[in-house]
Amino acid sequence: MPPAAESRRPDDLLVRIAEYVCDAAPHRDEAYAAARLCLMDSLGCALLALTFPECARLVGPVVPGAVLPGGARVPGTAWELDPVQAAFCFGAMVRWLDYNDTFLAAEWGHPSDNLGAILAIADWLGRSRARSGQPPLCVHDVLTAMIRAYEIQGVLALENALNRVGLDHVLLVRVASTAVATRMLGGTQRQVIDALGNAWLDGGALRAYRHAPNTGSRKSWAAGDATSRGVRLALWTLAGEMGYPTALTAPQWGFQDSLFHGQTLTLARPLGSYVMENILFKVSFPAEFHGQTAVEAALRLHPQVRGRWDRIARIVIETQESARRIITKSGPLGNPADRDHCIQYMVAVALLHGTLTAAHYQDAAAADPRIDCLRERTEVVEEPRYSRDYLDPEKRSIANAVQVVFDDGSRTERIEVEYPLGHRRRRDEARPALRAKFIRNAATVLAEASLGRLSALFDNPAGLDATTIPDFVDATCIIPQ
After folding, report:
1. What is the pTM of this model?
2. Where are the alpha helices (DSSP H) in 8-68?
3. pLDDT digit string (tens) for 305-336?
């Protein structure tokens, strides 16, 4: 490493993240319990995504024939790939349907996006170790890596609003995946710092692909791209690539001055297991999380409006500032990526059908003229209390209220839902529903024997934790004929 770079003290944020991932201190039991649910739920979401051709066509080697026997395997498939491409594939699968877990703050995102890097590294390392007679990694090791990746991404999201400067939250996936992957590969604290410097120097993807007129499928694979980049940077660092200690704070050229409008990146709280313990699950339907409680309210209103569509004069949605800003849309919606980030669309479908599934975002379902008719009659207004409670660390609510007004002046009751089913405050209620969601999603791809094996593992926490990653991934893969 050149002396000039070596002599500079690394940015404090890089040091704090590196200290955290290299710390052997155990996490709380509650965090591991949540991590097991996250692993189960993410795997189910990934398997379901393979049934959608738009996702399946991206899964596999970059070019035909570029496989790596003994490499990292991709769940739901027979592929064995280098860990960088395997991380992309599984990361894209987990994220594809916008059905995976979520964390909301000044920035928002989906910490399970990091599973692309974590599972690919764990399987590749585990199989390599087994061939040389060393003990492979176990599921408990993966859960620990998940807790740490979730914490890095989520705590960075608490106060650093990348969206307000036009950057996408997958930047935080790249940072978290880089830190955790480097440590999983045996990196020292200094090597984690070096890898993190490169992760921040990569800059950030623009949010343009999440918003009209450019909304598109990239938002479904952007996280896979980010988590795979974390693996690549980790491998390069372990091979001796240099780091950049002031990648954040360098005047004019560092991340903060170049891309964050001169603001200082902060860690709002000490790194522990806060994010995993407060993770949000999409239990019942795939909907952008700021609108989850709006859909829940609309489902409860469905019996009151069924058969009265032509008499609806107005639909009023009261929501938080974030939802008002990012998922309130008017005009034509061009594709599923546009529709699943439109609160008016999601509420209209829930009112019409009494359900909301991934299929409802596809072109065939969107052709129903009643949906756009109801969208045009929908008002979305901010409720200041919801905005305050959304940012309150003791509440972390994601509240919405929905009411329907008919042409004769009558109206339904106003249904308010402050905490979605996937919230920490409703964890016991959500647990059996999450298990049912996993069984339903995984059954679309896996054979009955594999599904039974996985279900038994998830029902046995101690047995799951002790299972080697090669054995765990075996149960998720398709055996070549």
Report:
1. 0.87
2. 12-22, 29-49, 53-56
3. 998 999 999 999 999 998 999 899 999 998 99
